[in-house]
């Protein structure tokens, strides 16, 4: 979906007037955000919608913390798509599977270590668990992307 389509669907759920009032904007501005820009008006009106502005900020800063912050606001967590490099066919499937299993084991060890000393998980322990979880998610996502790209097929 394009940014204006996403906004249109989201704004339709609560109403243009409610969004405009909460943002202290005119309803015309919110309506403009929710419409496909014309060729001659893409950048000239100064009415780029907020999603396009955030996209521009992400592209300029190359700072994923912005996306992560937005995901946290939406009660989620940002995980970047992996950059999967083609590998030699002999190493691929078994090694990738073993890496995922090892990372899962590391996560379980971290949880067990955290809980075994006092039955609770402290803030610092939760941070280490999060790091292990992020590593595992990255490995699993890389594996799935490689599968989708056909890297584990016989040639």
Structure report:
This protein is mainly α and 155 residues long. The protein folds into two domains: 3-73, no CATH class; 92-148. It is built from seven helices and no strands. The protein has helices at residues 3-14, 16-23, 27-33, 50-61, 65-73, 92-118, 123-148. α6 packs antiparallel against α7 (123-148). The mean pLDDT is 85.
What is the topology?
Elements: H1 3-14, H2 16-23, H3 27-33, H4 50-61, H5 65-73, H6 92-118, H7 123-148
Brief digest:
The chain has 155 residues and is an all-alpha fold. The protein has helices at residues 3-14, 16-23, 27-33, 50-61, 65-73, 92-118, 123-148.
Mean pLDDT: 85
Secondary structure tally, helices? 7
From the N-terminal CA to the C-terminal CA, the straight-line distance is: 35 Å
Name the poorly predicted regions. Answer: none
Amount of helix: 55-70%
The fraction of residues in strands falls at: under 5%
Which shape, going by the Cα principal axes?
Answer: flat
Order of helices and strands: HHHHHHH
SS-based class: mainly alpha
Number of strands: 0
Report the biggest beta sheet as strand number plus sense, adding barrel if it closes: none
Question: Could you say how many structural domains there are in total?
Answer: 2
Radius of gyration: 22 Å
List keywords for this structure.
flat; 2 domains; 155 residues; mainly alpha
């Amino acid at each position: 979906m394009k940014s204006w389509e996403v906004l249109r669907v989201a704004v339709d759920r609560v109403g243009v007037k409610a969004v405009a009032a909460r943002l202290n904007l005119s309803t015309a501005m919110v309506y403009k955000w929710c419409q496909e820009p014309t060729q001659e008006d893409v950048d000239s009106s100064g009415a780029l919608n907020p999603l396009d502005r955030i996209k521009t900020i992400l592209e300029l800063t190359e700072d994923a913390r912005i996306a992560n912050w937005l995901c946290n606001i939406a009660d989620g967590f940002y995980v970047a798509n992996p950059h999967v490099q083609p590998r030699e066919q002999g190493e691929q499937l078994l090694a990738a599977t073993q890496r995922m299993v090892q990372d899962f084991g590391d996560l379980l060890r971290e949880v067990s270590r955290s809980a075994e000393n006092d039955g609770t998980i402290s803030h610092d322990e939760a941070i280490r668990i999060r790091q292990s979880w992020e590593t595992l998610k990255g490995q699993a996502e890389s594996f799935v992307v490689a599968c989708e790209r056909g890297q584990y097929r016989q040639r």
